[in-house]
Amino acid sequence: TGIKLTNTGEWPSKKYVNKKRKGWIKLHVTLNIDSGKMMAMKVTDNRTHDSQCATGLIERARKKAEAVGCKVKKVIADTGYNTHQIFRYSGKRGIKPVIKVRRAAGITGNRARDEVVREMRRGRRWWKEGNG
């Protein structure tokens, strides 16, 4: 979801020929699940895909966690972050990715993603409960 950039409603703009679509801004946030504190944040427009800013957010959260003596163990994200780049990044850093992949996802050689695919093939409910 996003936040509208203008205050005008959708109906008047459609009725009065203003077919130009208004933009959105998106707020990407990383949280520490245990404490509920925000670790990193980024605001983007509607042209930026969620996965484009994920590695930067995770890296900033990882550095902030290391500064206080903690470690990022798990990345929980929705399907908007289901890209090989994020799985590769998290696998190299020893971070467990908990990102839902599509049902027809196949084994591709990306070790971190393949592990999630195998777990989800056992059962989506089992995967969901096992990863919290």
- Biggest sheet record: 3 strands, antiparallel
Coarse structural class: alpha+beta
Unreliable parts: none
Order of helices and strands: EHEEHEHEHH
Mean pLDDT: 85
Q: Spatial order of the strands in the main sheet?
A: 1-2-3
Number of helices: 5
Structural account:
It contains five helices and five strands. The two termini are 23 Å apart. A hairpin with a 6-residue loop joins strand 2 and strand 3 (38-45). Helix 4 crosses helix 5. With 132 residues, it is of the alpha+beta class.
Provide key terms for this protein.
5 helices, 132 residues
Topology:
Layout: E1 3-4, H1 10-15, E2 24-31, E3 38-45, H2 50-67, E4 74-77, H3 84-93, E5 96-99, H4 111-122, H5 124-130
Parallel strand pairs: 4-5
Antiparallel strand pairs: 1-2, 2-3
Helix pairs in contact: 4-5
In a nutshell, what does this entry contain?
The protein is α+β, with helices and mostly antiparallel strands and 132 residues long.
